[in-house]
Design a protein that fits this description.
By secondary structure, the protein is mostly helical. The chain is 75% helix and 0% strand. The protein is elongated, with a radius of gyration of 31 Å.
Length: 106
């Protein structure tokens, strides 16, 4: 069994930092593009301008935070309005149904 010099089981040297840093796969680019679109959509939902982030980062984040809670508040207000509107019809019918069901079990 003659072993050739290139057939040794010696561990391979780990690539250097700069080589690992520059090793970008196409899947990395696709993931980066998808994340950029998702974050861009989220920021657009709160009317954040990219220029504002560069000029006044903390002010833009504060305005986005305020817009987030304003949208949550308006959504909850909308949901509670329709909850009350539906409850006006559903709850009396449910109570009548419970009374009829309890009376028929005797």
């Amino acid at each position: 069994m003659n072993q050739l010099p290139h057939d040794t089981d010696a561990p391979r040297a780990r690539p250097g930092f700069w080589r690992r840093l520059a090793a970008v796969r196409p899947s990395d680019i696709v993931i980066l593009v998808v994340l950029c679109v998702v974050v861009g959509l989220a920021l657009a939902a709160f009317n954040v301008d990219p220029a504002d982030l560069w000029v006044d980062f903390f002010g833009a984040v504060g305005r986005a935070w305020t817009a987030f809670f304003d949208s949550i508040g308006s959504t909850l207000g909308w949901a509670l309005r329709y909850l009350a509107l539906g409850a006006v019809i559903v709850v009396p019918i449910w109570i009548a149904w419970r009374i009829i069901a309890a009376a028929s079990r005797r």
